[in-house]
Amino acid sequence: MSKKVLVLPGDYIGPEIMAEAVKVLDAANARFGLGIELEYGLLGGAALDECGVPLPDETLARAREVDAILLGAVGGPKWDGVERHLRPERGLLAIRSELQLFGNLRPAILYPQLAGASSLKPEIVAGLDILIVRELTGGIYFGEPRGIRTLENGEREGYNTYKYSESEVRRIAHLAFDLARKRDSRVCSVDKSNVLEATVLWREVMEEVATEYPDVELSHIYVDNAAMQLVMNPKQFDVMVTGNMFGDILSDAAAMLTGSIGMLPSASLDQAGRGMYEPCHGSAPDIAGQGKANPLATILSVAMMLRYTLASPEAAAAIEDAVSAVLDQGLRTPDIHSEGTTVVSTTEMGDAVLAAVQAA
Ligand code: NAD
Ligand code: IPM
Ligand code: MN
């Protein structure tokens, strides 16, 4: 039976990195007989330009039908002036919310070949393997009321609402504990329960769920300390579970531990394990069109898609091994370049991974 993947390249470097990821996916498809069929759709600025909205009905309808979604990145200065509800990023948030992709997995793994590319000392990051589990469809990103209003004194005020229901916390907790069982069985929940009531409840529910997992160790940390610990001693963490905004921020910080944000893939899963896969980085307008973008985060997102949603662990491993082989060859896009390695373009990097998958 064939499996359908909806490809949403997005904006700026989105189409550049996606072209390389699709190359690699096609090669894995052929090599392992996966029977995957690709369709293309519009999301973000590309959709706004074409259809007048950042998430067209057609894209959402296709997204509901397919087995998995592969996304590049959306947004950029071209659409800075558009109304808030039409911003490209709103399209991304809407598709996550509509599909209830509440569980965002962001694995920060250091490829040993890149120890020298991290901004931290190699001994701090060597062997790094942490998994950030970010709640993706709730919290301050979606809380109502929200907006900008004019006060009686004529001054304007911007406001958002940070809230989490028990059921929202429970389901992300279960996901984190289940994933921890397949790793080092340690979950660290990141909150700000010394200040925010929403996260007092978050911590309580984490404790409740933990009683169902006596074999998994649960600890708690405030988000400010978590940021500090991540750059001081990141290897102390196994699974970190946190809300939408804290997870957004901490995962960009964790990305730098691995050498570059261009290395960090992600999976966004619903309750049934269906998912959307995308790099953690954005559309990098500053380097778009120059062949400088690192396609590896998107290529590694393909591997996550094969593992988590398309049940093809062998093909996933082949792609991850191919990335490692290419790094062994000393090939680097500029973001992960260090002394003694060879700078290659986005396309050359994709071609090298493709060749390594074909040779697997
Ligand atoms: P960004 O992640 O696009 O870029 C931050 C920095 O990292 C830039 O210097 C960029 O050149 C570099 N970078 C990012 N990806 C890279 C890659 N693959 N290879 C090499 N270098 C890379 O973040 P930003 O500049 O804050 O945001 C730009 C736009 O992207 C904004 O519109 C933002 O809203 C959007 N964005 C989208 C997503 C998404 O689609 N998932 C995620 C984050 C930001
Ligand atoms: C990410 C991005 C998005 C987020 C933006 C573009 C809406 O930063 O995927 O990390 O904040 O979730
Ligand atoms: Mn982000």
From TrEMBL:
<dbReference type="InterPro" id="IPR019818">
    <property type="entry name" value="IsoCit/isopropylmalate_DH_CS"/>
</dbReference>
<feature type="binding site">
    <location>
        <position position="252"/>
    </location>
    <ligand>
        <name>Mg(2+)</name>
    </ligand>
</feature>
<keyword id="KW-0028">Amino-acid biosynthesis</keyword>
<dbReference type="InterPro" id="IPR004429">
    <property type="entry name" value="Isopropylmalate_DH"/>
</dbReference>
<comment type="function">
    <text>Catalyzes the oxidation of 3-carboxy-2-hydroxy-4-methylpentanoate (3-isopropylmalate) to 3-carboxy-4-methyl-2-oxopentanoate. The product decarboxylates to 4-methyl-2 oxopentanoate.</text>
</comment>
<dbReference type="GO" id="GO:0005829">
    <property type="term" value="C:cytosol"/>
</dbReference>
<dbReference type="GO" id="GO:0000287">
    <property type="term" value="F:magnesium ion binding"/>
</dbReference>
<dbReference type="InterPro" id="IPR024084">
    <property type="entry name" value="IsoPropMal-DH-like_dom"/>
</dbReference>
<dbReference type="GO" id="GO:0009098">
    <property type="term" value="P:L-leucine biosynthetic process"/>
</dbReference>
<comment type="pathway">
    <text>Amino-acid biosynthesis; L-leucine biosynthesis; L-leucine from 3-methyl-2-oxobutanoate: step 3/4.</text>
</comment>
<feature type="binding site">
    <location>
        <position position="224"/>
    </location>
    <ligand>
        <name>Mg(2+)</name>
    </ligand>
</feature>
<keyword id="KW-0464">Manganese</keyword>
<feature type="binding site">
    <location>
        <position position="134"/>
    </location>
    <ligand>
        <name>substrate</name>
    </ligand>
</feature>
<keyword id="KW-0479">Metal-binding</keyword>
<dbReference type="GO" id="GO:0003862">
    <property type="term" value="F:3-isopropylmalate dehydrogenase activity"/>
</dbReference>
<keyword id="KW-0460">Magnesium</keyword>
<feature type="binding site">
    <location>
        <begin position="282"/>
        <end position="294"/>
    </location>
    <ligand>
        <name>NAD(+)</name>
    </ligand>
</feature>
<keyword id="KW-0963">Cytoplasm</keyword>
<dbReference type="Pfam" id="PF00180">
    <property type="entry name" value="Iso_dh"/>
</dbReference>
<keyword id="KW-0520">NAD</keyword>
<feature type="binding site">
    <location>
        <position position="224"/>
    </location>
    <ligand>
        <name>substrate</name>
    </ligand>
</feature>
<feature type="binding site">
    <location>
        <begin position="76"/>
        <end position="89"/>
    </location>
    <ligand>
        <name>NAD(+)</name>
    </ligand>
</feature>
<comment type="similarity">
    <text>Belongs to the isocitrate and isopropylmalate dehydrogenases family. LeuB type 1 subfamily.</text>
</comment>
<comment type="subunit">
    <text>Homodimer.</text>
</comment>
<keyword id="KW-0560">Oxidoreductase</keyword>
<feature type="binding site">
    <location>
        <position position="248"/>
    </location>
    <ligand>
        <name>Mg(2+)</name>
    </ligand>
</feature>
<keyword id="KW-0432">Leucine biosynthesis</keyword>
<feature type="site" description="Important for catalysis">
    <location>
        <position position="192"/>
    </location>
</feature>
<feature type="binding site">
    <location>
        <position position="106"/>
    </location>
    <ligand>
        <name>substrate</name>
    </ligand>
</feature>
<feature type="domain" description="Isopropylmalate dehydrogenase-like">
    <location>
        <begin position="4"/>
        <end position="353"/>
    </location>
</feature>
<dbReference type="GO" id="GO:0051287">
    <property type="term" value="F:NAD binding"/>
</dbReference>
<feature type="binding site">
    <location>
        <position position="96"/>
    </location>
    <ligand>
        <name>substrate</name>
    </ligand>
</feature>
<protein>
    <recommendedName>
        <fullName>3-isopropylmalate dehydrogenase</fullName>
        <ecNumber>1.1.1.85</ecNumber>
    </recommendedName>
</protein>
<feature type="site" description="Important for catalysis">
    <location>
        <position position="141"/>
    </location>
</feature>
<keyword id="KW-0100">Branched-chain amino acid biosynthesis</keyword>
